[in-house]
Specification:
339 residues, mainly alpha, 70% helix, 2% strand, globular
Length: 339
């Protein structure tokens, strides 16, 4: 019997673990989508008042703050696990400074940007804060040199950029003066559709087109899966457009109804709105996949499978939001210039 199981390639324990992992992944995905829908409804339904983005935007700011802080913990813990020995030492004060900046970056941006008198100086506040915290990191390295190193200090600075500054970019998308709702929807929908498209197309066609995308970083990712991710990103762009078109309309054009004056404002005459969403979805998908591969490079460098285990079946916060952090710059630029 044992030989028969072996010959058939069946392993009951592995099959059971795979099913259990799939259930956890689906359950986590359902919770993730539920929280996302609640945040979208909150942002859409709470009146804007006199502040940029509206008070309803604070729900997403809370999520982005959690991404920044938990991501910093995960990143520093992964650095601890790499085999760098004495060449990469990070002292406790340096960890505190790094996590402190990641904790204040999003609130700092949101508070400054929501005050009308500041004229949207959120990024200036984040830049000044980043400079101050970097100087504090350097000072702790100088005065606590036995327990820190230059390499460790550089890792901390990168962590502040990767987790803190890019999370502030997410908050900036959330507080765009126009089309912030469309930009947030595009960011989340394209990220999910890219992952789904890459997984579905890769699973179905990788045996026919087995060419690896980046075997040295992620052996399971294929070129055909990447193509599927791009198709998924384009579909995500189309879905995002019609969500805005159906539930808000475009400028003075209303399809069904308009609530709280949330609609798609178009200022570009070069591309039709739908084509613009398709192009943004395409390039956002590419950026999402590059961000995912970069995260794989970090994990390989640190010798870890996942950045954390907070999200069962998905890994850590950075495993879920890596592509979104990387694509935030493109989405911010696109909706800040085209629309």
């Amino acid at each position: 019997m044992a030989e028969q199981v072996k010959d058939n390639g069946l392993n009951p324990v592995k099959e059971e673990n795979k099913k259990s992992s799939l259930k956890l992944r689906v359950l986590t995905g359902v919770v993730y989508v539920t929280i996302l829908l609640v945040m979208v409804v909150l942002k859409w339904c709470v009146p804007q008042g006199s502040v940029a983005g509206g008070w309803g935007s604070l729900g997403f700011d809370a999520v982005f703050t959690a991404v920044s802080v938990i991501g910093a913990f995960e990143f520093l813990r992964a650095i601890d696990r790499q085999s760098s020995g004495v060449n990469c030492k990070i002292s406790t004060p340096q960890r505190a400074v790094t996590i402190a900046f990641c904790a204040v970056s999003v609130p700092l941006y949101a508070i400054i940007d929501m005050i009308p008198q500041t004229n949207g100086s959120g990024f200036l506040a984040v830049a000044v804060g980043f400079t101050i915290y970097t100087m504090l990191l350097a000072a702790t390295s100088v005065f606590d040199h036995n327990r820190s190193s230059v390499k460790g200090t550089i890792y901390c600075i990168f962590c502040m950029i990767y987790c803190g500054v890019l999370s502030a970019m997410l908050s900036s998308i959330n507080h765009l003066k126009t089309n912030s709702m469309a930009a947030v929807i595009m960011l989340f929908v394209c990220s999910v559709c890219t992952d789904t498209g890459a997984f579905v197309v890769g699973s179905l066609l990788k045996k026919y087109v087995p060419l690896k995308l980046a075997p040295q970083l992620s052996p399971n990712k294929t070129v055909i899966g990447s193509v599927g991710g791009i198709i998924g990103g384009i579909i995500g762009g189309i879905i995002s457009f019609y969500i805005m078109y159906i539930f808000g309309g475009i400028d003075d054009q209303i399809m069904f109804f308009r609530f709280n004056e949330v609609f798609l404002h178009v200022k570009s005459e070069t591309f039709p709105p739908l084509l613009s969403f398709v192009l943004i979805g395409l390039f956002t998908s590419v950026m999402c996949q590059i961000g995912d591969l970069f995260e794989s490079a970090i994990k390989r460098e640190c010798g870890v499978k996942d950045m954390g285990n907070l999200l069962p079946g998905h890994g850590g916060i950075l495993d879920r939001f890596d592509s979104m952090l990387y694509s935030s710059v493109l989405v911010l630029f696109s909706f800040g210039t085209i629309f």
